[in-house]
Amino acid sequence: MSSSSSNVPNEVELHPEIDLDHVPRHVAIIMDGNGRWAVDRGLERNAGHREGIESVREIIRACRDYGVEALTLYAFSIENWNRPKDEVSELMRLLEEYLETELAEVMEHEAQVRSIGRLDRLPPSTRRAVEHAVAETKNNQGMKLVFALSYGGRTEIVDAARRLARDAELGKIDPEGIDEKGFAAYLYAADLPDPDLLIRTGAEQRVSNFLLWQIAYAELHLSEKMWPEFRRAEFESALVDYQRRERRFGLTSDQVRDGEGADS
Ligand code: FPP
């Protein structure tokens, strides 16, 4: 087994249309449709979440194989706390189980587990599992694997504003000097590049309070597939779709060709 962090493992067959020099650096995914997938099959909703974990595994492997630097998965939104209690407990249990059983593979991938969101709301055992995975993988140099947990985009911006205001009060920063870059430094995972590609499954067309600040220029790929059906082939289609688009960041095509606006 290859444990190289940046080279594509040679035993994997890669999609011929995907240009490895233009793979998105950061992919963010809204994993939607677990419940509908299950109900359509006469199963209880939690069966959809369990099957969704297989997609999580497959997509992480695909990201590693194509050299994606960071993958952020919307595993539990701040709004998800309003779901029925037994569904919330099952999601927490699955997350713990996943983090415990997958740690060996994550280490083999040299991936670094991170989390964003208000972790203080998680049950103690789930929080411990997350913190353990983060601590165990913190020196890994491969892909950043970010789990958005108890996460809300507006909450993240409010949390950043609070920390910024505190620093201003302490005289550490000058309010007049705050610019976009300075503000973004207060977000949860400020060292990561903004997502280049945002994928949403489940045949919905919303951003659902996910990474509101960071997706300002992201390309959107909306999939009709329910999350448990979204596997390597669907991910490859998303990459092909992404690579067919021209990213202009508000510039003209000529300016992009001439390499202007590199500060994006
Ligand atoms: C949305 O489906 C999905 C979620 C609320 C959570 C995603 C969770 C998993 C894939 C399993 C655990 C995650 C990890 C990272 C181990 P939905 O229930 O909203 O689907 P619906 O719109 O069809 O009801």
Overview of this protein structure:
- This protein has 264 residues and is of the alpha/beta class.
- It has one domain (23-243): Decaprenyl diphosphate synthase-like (Undecaprenyl pyrophosphate synthetase, 3-Layer(aba) Sandwich), CATH 3.40.1180.10.
- Helices cover 41% and strands 13% of the residues.
- The chain has helices at 34-40, 45-66, 85-108, 124-137, 153-169, 180-184, 232-244, 253-257; strands at 26-30, 70-77, 112-116, 144-151, 197-200, 219-222.
- Strands 3-4-2-1-5-6 form a six-stranded parallel sheet, sandwiched between helices.
- α2 (45-66) runs parallel beside α3 and α3 (85-108) runs parallel beside α4 (124-137).
- The protein starts with 25 loop residues before the first strand and ends in a 7-residue tail after the last helix.
- Farnesyl diphosphate binds at residues 31-36, 49, 52-53, 56, 73, 75, 80, 94-95, 98, 147, 202, 227.
Brief synopsis:
With 264 residues, the chain is α/β, with parallel strands linked by helices. Helix content is 41%, strand content 13%. The protein has one domain: Undecaprenyl pyrophosphate synthetase.
Shape: globular
Number of strands: 6
List the domain count as a whole number: 1
CATH superfamily: Decaprenyl diphosphate synthase-like
CATH level-3 fold name: Undecaprenyl pyrophosphate synthetase
Assembly category? single chain
| Main pleated sheet | 6 strands, parallel
Radius of gyration: 19 Å
Give the H and E element order: EHHEHEHEHHEEHH
| Widest beta sheet: strand line-up | 3-4-2-1-5-6
Q: What bound compounds does this protein have?
A: farnesyl diphosphate
